[in-house]
Amino acid sequence: MVTPKPIFKPKYKICVSGASETGHCAKDAPEKAKEIGSEIVRHGGVLVTGATHGIPYWAAIGAKEEGGISIGLSPAASEAAHKKVYHLPTDYFDVIIYTGFEYSGRNLLLTRAADAVIVLCGRMGTLNEFTIAFEEQKPIGVLQGTGGTADLIRDLVRRLHKGSGKIVYDTNPHRLVKKIFKMLQGAKVESMNKSFFSHAHE
Questions:
Q1: Which of 24, 48, 130, 152 has the largest CB neighbor count within 10 A?
Q2: Domain coordinates in residue numbering, the chain
């Protein structure tokens, strides 16, 4: 008797974008990042980060403590450079992809690899990842009240006159992650419906 192969069910990949140096962040921002990482796993998602310190690292801790998968994309070209040149961590990651594209190139690959992006606290690199996600119409969650980039985004979007994007805002990590997964599932249903009606009219 042949044992059937397990059915592979794709998981949503959620990027957590935030400051690697958290001195300017709200005091509870690291703990909220950890909660975000845990909540992504509870919703059946995979965490994707820039394999760095600070906010992304705390999210990775939360994901691993919840028993989930944590993937990091490094700006370095090798593990040796990741550790010795960039001084970045390797723990709390199941897989680290060494891009060799430095920070700006890593940010592009990281954002494109994700199905959605969650922003909390943040500096210039976080803003870079946000603008990439915004231009590519990715679902974006912004955890307000965490400092830095996250608390500037709503006003920036309003002032720059490029539309409102696919952005949801909240001050609660659990509610924000729930909103992101609701957006992703809604987009999936819409895509399936479009595909069905397209084939029906062929």
A1: 48
A2: 27-200
Q: How does pLDDT run across 84-95, given as a tens digit for each residue?
A: 999 999 999 999
In this structure, what token pair is assigned to residue 160? 């720059």
Neighbour-count burial of 154, counting CB atoms closer than 10 A to its CB (0-12 exposed, 13-18 middle, 19+ buried): middle
Q: CA–CA distance from 54 to each of 57, 186, 197, 198, 199 (Å)?
A: 5, 31, 46, 46, 47
Q: State the chain's mean pLDDT as an integer.
A: 93
- Under 8 Å CB-to-CB from 65, ≥6 apart: which residues? 34, 38
Which CATH class for the 27-200 domain? alpha beta
Residue 48 has pLDDT above 90, yes or no: yes
pLDDT in tens, 4-45: 676 667 799 999 999 999 999 999 999 999 999 999 999 999
Q: Could you count the other beta carbons within 10 Å of the beta carbon of residue 83?
A: 14
Q: What is the pLDDT of residue 176?
A: 98
154 is written with which tokens?
């709503």
- Bridge-based pairing of strands 140-143 and 167-170 is parallel
Measured between alpha carbons, how far is residue 34 from residues 6, 85, 98 in Å? 31, 26, 24
